[in-house]
Design goal:
The protein is 49% helix and 14% strand. The protein is an alpha/beta fold. Strands 2-3-1-4-7 form a 5-stranded parallel sheet, with helices on both faces. It is globular, with a radius of gyration of 18 Å. The structure holds zinc ion. Zinc ion binds at residues 130, 132-133, 135, 150, 152-153, 155.
Length: 217
């Protein structure tokens, strides 16, 4: 099963991705993670990517293309894969189509996570992070035992500078501008499944499982 997951910041895309790869034993393909590991490994691709990032530029599509071709050539995708954070633009979506055609593969479903803006706002502005161990808390959904203090290491929690309402609005606008064309591209192919992700994670995942079960009938 080959899936693509899309969702604005705060829609729980990371959590759903983790659950999906475990439940279906599929490979998690995140271009962000792949770029980071290529850079850490100082591979030829990684060094090239680092060069662009050092100049404050976006990593060009040709490089992302090479990264994806290499990744889809590995044999851990036999049971399928979950694409996360890619394709980001219409050009990348069209390119991916060509790559998959060449490998005799196709996308089975695009999972589009949707959360109401006020719910997103609550999720994002309530988030508190530990600077030392990286633990993440939430003032309502997952509060620490002592207010403002990390349960694991006792450090003082802080709010990330982009976990504010204003920053959320900017990020949402940017997200919709870039992702809409990608979603429309797959809608035309009849592959997009809108998922109401306002619920708690276990319920959202149950909805996804129901959709995938239907697909496999
Ligand atoms: Zn901590």
């Amino acid at each position: 099963m080959n899936l693509l997951i899309v969702g604005a910041p705060g829609t729980g895309k990371g959590t759903m991705s983790e659950l999906l790869i475990k439940a279906y034993d599929i490979a998690h393909i995140s271009t962000g993670d792949m770029l980071r590991s290529a850079i850490n490994a100082k591979s030829a691709l990684g060094l090239k990517a680092q060069g662009y990032m050092d100049e404050g530029k976006l990593v060009p599509d040709e490089l992302i293309h090479d990264l994806i071709v290499e990744r889809l050539g590995r044999d851990d995708i036999q049971k399928g894969f979950l694409l996360d954070g890619y394709p980001r633009t219409l050009a990348q979506a069209e390119d991916l189509d060509h790559i998959l055609d060449g490998l005799d593969l196709k996308i089975d479903a695009v999972l589009d996570l949707n959360v109401d803006e006020e719910v997103l706002a609550k999720r994002i502005t309530g988030r508190r992070v530990c600077p030392d161990c990286g633990s993440i808390f939430h003032i309502h959904n997952h509060p620490p035992k002592v207010e403002g203090v990390c349960d694991n290491c006792g450090a003082k929690l802080y709010q990330r500078h982009d976990d504010t309402l204003e920053s959320l609005k900017t990020r949402l606008t940017a997200y919709h501008q870039s992702t809409q064309a990608v979603v429309d591209f797959y809608k035309e192919k009849g592959l997009v499944y809108m998922i109401d992700a306002n619920d708690e994670p276990s319920r959202v995942f149950a909805k996804i499982e129901a959709i995938l079960k239907e697909l496999h009938k």
